[in-house]
TrEMBL record:
Belongs to the lin-7 family. GO terms for biological process: exocytosis; protein transport. One of its GO terms (cellular component) is postsynaptic density membrane. Pfam families: L27, PDZ. It comes from the Eukaryota. Residues 73-155 form the PDZ domain. This is Protein lin-7 homolog B. Keywords: Cell junction, Cell membrane, Exocytosis, Membrane, Postsynaptic cell membrane, Protein transport, Signal, Synapse, Tight junction, Transport. Residues 1-21 form the signal peptide. InterPro entries: L27_C (IPR014775), L27_dom (IPR004172), L27_dom_sf (IPR036892), LIN7 (IPR017365), MAM_complex_regulator (IPR051109), PDZ (IPR001478), PDZ_sf (IPR036034).
Length: 181
């Protein structure tokens, strides 16, 4: 029985329901089928910092494989040269606002905190999720000193959005070529 339970418990370790596994260990301990010291050792592992780190890393890895990651804070100094990145998207385009380009040699590039594919979530504490493109531009232009951005890396969504925009541009070009003005 112990040989069957142990691998299952380590699989559970990567998922959020650790407390359920500990309850099952308590029930096993009450049956007396497994020596209590072995069950207590498993409980310690499940409640350990290591298991918690494995669980968090697994969640992050699954999120990254799906093209998502946890939000992060990037602080950039605002200078006369601007912030050194471009954005695209917005409510009017039925898409989130994204970092579409980090300008080589610009502030964002030198800082290294932003990357193409980052979704812009907020600017200096003001959410831009579900907002128009122009609102994000206004917040970025109005910012002074250090600009605090909250972003999340979601490159697959950006790629899908860019593909959709390219299809629309191609259709518009074809339409213009078929109907000269």
């Amino acid at each position: 029985l112990f040989a069957l339970v142990l691998p299952s418990l380590f699989c559970i370790c990567s998922f959020p329901d650790i407390s359920r596994a500990i309850e099952l260990l308590d029930k096993l301990q009450r049956t007396g089928e497994v020596p209590p010291q072995k069950l207590q050792a498993l409980q310690r592992v499940l409640q350990s910092e290591f298991c918690n780190a494995v669980r968090e890393a697994t969640v992050a890895a699954f999120a990254a494989s799906e093209g998502h990651s946890h939000p992060r804070v990037v602080e950039l100094p605002k200078t006369e040269e601007g912030l050194g990145f471009n954005i695209m998207g917005g409510k009017e385009q039925n898409s989130p606002i994204y970092i579409s380009r980090v300008i080589p040699g610009g502030i964002a590039d030198r800082h290294g905190g932003l990357k193409r594919g980052d979704q812009l979530l907020s600017v200096n504490g003001v959410s831009v999720e579900g907002e128009h493109h122009e609102k994000a531009v206004e917040l970025l232009k109005a910012a002074q000193g250090t600009v605090k951005l909250v972003v999340r890396y979601t490159p697959k969504v950006l790629e899908e959005m860019e593909s959709r925009f390219e299809k629309l541009r191609s259709a518009k070009r074809r339409q213009q070529n078929n109907y000269p003005q």
